[in-house]
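Deliverable D4.2, example record:
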Amino acid sequence: MSQVLYVHAKGGPPVGHALARVAARSPVHLLALSELPVEVADDAARLCASVVTPPGTERRDLVELITARAREVGADAVLTFSEYAVVAVAEACRLLGLRGAGATASLARDKRLMRATWDRRGVPQPRFRAVASLAELDQATVELSCPLLLKSAWSAGSTAHQIIDEPGQARHAWHRSRQVMAESAQLGFAELHVQGASEDFIVEEIVTGRAEEWFDGPGWGDYVSVEGAVVDGEFRPVCLSGRMPTVAPFTERAGITPAAVGSGAQDRIVELARQSVDALGLENCGTHTEIKLGADGRMWVIETAARFGGAMTVPQIEEVFGLDLVGLFTDQLLGRSPAWPARALTPADTERAAGSLVVLAVNSDGTPWARRGRWDSSTVVREAPVGADSTLSVVRESSLPDGSPVPVYDPAGGANTMAGLCLLSADRPQTVVSDFSALVEALPDILRADAVEEARA
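Output generated by the structure prediction step:
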């Protein structure tokens, strides 16, 4: 019987969701590089043939650790859904002779290599420079046009993003981004395989989006993500996910499946995603490609990843389209013949929509909450002003324990300062956007500030 080694680390879809679906396809052995959420620990013991959590001293050569464990359990496939372990798992699979993302996986992880590859292939993207020092950042502010966005080459979740409106801000942005990357590493949100990755950055010009030219209804953000997979070297698009406007500088607040763009627009978006993924030469992996939508049909690729979208993207796709992406991918790595969609699915292929909302202590206009509250999942579900045909739940493994103070939003910290994650099921994409917009307005009152100190700006 086939055996699967599941390498768990921070990020990606909720581990409880993914682990259950891998276990439904094959006996699974868990290598936990990050602590499992309390809500998942008991399920992991029940679902897995073995659970190993190596001490930190054994993780200095992560590829060796993964390959050794794979050989111990006789793994026929090794997989991860974490951005931070993608490169190590790809290299381990290559050494083991197993299906994986392939030798070019780092091109879908290191934004410097990714952007350089696209530049050579003529893929439309914002102008950028790779920077490894303050001197290089200063030079980039002369060569590029402000405003600029500085971000870590290996980050995820909008961590360490800093906007530079004029060259004089470069020094502060550089030191702040480096500080945040160091703090994130302490929380486990950092590249696990590449030494010194927190020192690598890129800076790019901020391109202007025009959401109103792509969506019929209000409340949408100006970029989408194309969810898909690479199957034996062939890009297989699954669907598009939309967004609400980001919180400054560019922290994602909500993702919606499917994105309510017209069929002609979706075809063009998918074709650009295909160009960007094909350029990277990947073999077998999930993909998540973010594309900025501009005026007059112009588009720019922001980044892609050799894994499925994080937060609740994967559960949303299952809720809306009935597709178990984790199960399909597990079968793919095991050499079976999973039924990937023949084309990218659209809103016309479903009568439902779903979305996930990151709870941040920021109002819809970008201002911080006047007072802090305490996180209370049951109160959020009970008092949320959603439509009669909508269903809201809280993803507990991705949320703070009830009673915890809601963190003050840190623009440089991005999603690291979230309080909770909500999941909504509704009749159509625009309903999800409307319900989430109402919920964002109501949250400061729902999470009342009883005897909690005032929020700091």
